[in-house]
Amino acid sequence: MLWFVLLKIDHGNLFFDKKYIIPIDMIGKVGYSYSHELLKHIEKVGDTKNEGGCPMDFRELTTDVLIVGGGTAGCYAAITLGQEKDIQVLIVEKANIKRSGCLAAGVNAINAYITEGHVPQDYVDYAKKDADGIVREDLLLSMSERLNEVTAHMERLGLVILKDKDGKYVARGNRNIKINGENIKPILADAVKSLENTTVINHVNITDYIVENGVINGAYGFDVNDKTAYKINAKAVICATGGAAGLYRPNNPGFSRHKMWYPPFNTGAGYAMGINAGAEMTTFEMRFIALRCKDTIAPTGTIAQGVGAKQVNSKGEIYETKYGLTTSQRVYGTVMENIEGRGPCYLRTEGISKVQDESLKKAYLNMAPSQTLKWIESGKNPSEQNVEIEGTEPYVVGGHTASGYWVDTERRTTIHNLFAAGDVAGGCPQKYVTGAMVEGEIAAETMVKELDAQKVSETTEDKKANNENDDVCGIDKAFDEKVNEYNRILNNKDCVYTTEQLEDAMQKVMDAYAGGIGSHYQFNEKQLELAKEKIKKLQELAENVSADDCHELMFAYELKERLTVCLTLIEHLKARKETRWHSFDENLDYPEKSDEWLKYVNSKKVDGEIKIITRQLVGRGESYEHNN
């Protein structure tokens, strides 16, 4: 099996292209950096110079399928594609797929599972109720029908799922089962590593799609460890980059600012690339705010479902039934109890049994050991003290709410040959881990059908033309411009504000004017206008940041990605003229819910501005295809 690597070498004003053929197993598999290993086997580009004077290597790769992001959905998509020996797959991950994405630290439960006595339609009903009707029922049903299948597959791969004396999975509530999931991500990574048709490039950050006439042809990026730029050509692309964290000022400022609920390295890159390429997005206004254990930001569901703990205020009164039991209502109730002077709020664990004490401490070791350490440090078990709770800062994440790419039933985006899966895909909330896997599987299966159809329709003349194009390597002006952009940041000596300073300013703006923790998640239209004005100014300032190396260059692009997502989010918050989800989308100018807004709020970037589009609801019996 062979892989083509194109190196573009700049000698003065002339470009000479060299194409090397190397064994695919020399390209970095799981566990080591691709670029450093590759340099052992091919000629290294020497002292090349681009505009700005920074040495930069050029590499161009070609594959059938490019998967951007090696998290849950990306890995499972690759596992699905691994059954197709004649399709070459490339996963590009800015970290290392062994411990990247939301599963990096593990989980202690499968939160999306059809338990005994229930059917997939029950899960659709649950998610629809929690989102107050604004969901894609076609997506939810196609996901729910496969949840148990992917769970069984993960068990075959080595995931430990707890069972009772009768050999049945141990349920935790109506839709969850207990697991020992600290190693769930390494299990996925090992499965990917064993695939003959799949190659992994770790430590490469993708920054832009290559899109021509509404069709994706690949992506640009750079190695975060050395000065190497990449152009990756692909017939089809799956975006699996996760959601967006770090838009708002977090609970824990300063040194601990990255101790947050959602991974801080999920910066909305996939959203931003799609927005800038003209892809349609949906339901960003349905932000997600997690109810978490104070300070540790550990999940509360482990306690609420594990031992049946109720939400109580400082007077010991149960308040959760007063406001409602949907995810947003639980957060809203906690906010209101504090505003009205009945805080702090807690999960009532006082009085639980010693067995439950030990069960909780063990459960948190799988994903949030800081909570277990907090109990041990205090010298009190959960049965001796209630657990204080608080809401996090808002996130944009399609694994919990319906925000993300607008996709059809087969997970195609509005850009031809670009698919979305997992937290980056919209319309299908409450997908969690197994739902992300299902979406990766659906996207991969659709992709295989379309690639097969392309092969059948491709004529002999087409193949001849493609081969001729492979042999003639012209200057790629767009790639040159992108590399010069990287170089400009790396060589910028006139930086006024650092990336960190601008990120802090962005979070302050969003917190104060776009419904952050500091404003009790509330906002009005005037505040949103101010937020838009200030974020646009920060975008201008972000064009003049600098970076000492490619790791800092990654931070610069993460800032740009977050600012892009912020502007789209602000437009969505402005567009929905109601308050359907308290706290998630608390519009003080429109404090009531209205049936007129039983529809999707979508958006698309047109001529540099975000255009709002509304679409009618899609039912579970429908199959949605893009047609306009």
Report what the structure shows:
The structure is a single chain. The chain has 628 residues and is α+β, with helices and mostly antiparallel strands. It has 18 helices and 22 strands. It has helices at residues 34-38, 72-81, 120-130, 137-144, 147-157, 184-193, 269-277, 301-304, 320-323, 327-339, 354-365, 369-378, 432-457, 460-471, 477-490, 499-513, 525-542, 550-575; strands spanning 2-11, 14-23, 57-68, 89-93, 107-110, 160-161, 177-181, 198-202, 204-212, 215-223, 228-239, 281-282, 291-293, 311-312, 345-347, 387-391, 404-405, 418-420, 522-523, 586-587, 600-606, 609-615. Strands 1, 2, 3, 4, 8, 9, 10, 11 and 18 form a nine-stranded mixed β-sheet that branches. The chain has a four-stranded antiparallel β-sheet with strand order 17-12-21-22. A four-stranded antiparallel β-sheet has the order 13-16-15-14. β10 (215-223) and β11 (228-239) form a beta hairpin. α17 (525-542) packs antiparallel against α18 (550-575). It is globular and about 70 Å long.
Broad structural category: alpha+beta
Distance between the termini: 41 Å
User: How many strands, which pairing sense, and closed or not: the largest β-sheet?
Assistant: 9 strands, mixed
List the total number of helices.
Answer: 18
Q: Would you identify the regions where 5 or more consecutive residues have pLDDT less than 50?
A: 1-54, 467-475
Residue-averaged pLDDT, rounded? Answer: 89
Q: Radius of gyration in whole Å, from Cα?
A: 24 Å
Strand content: 15-25%
Shape: globular
- The percent range for helix content is 25-40%
Number of strands: 22
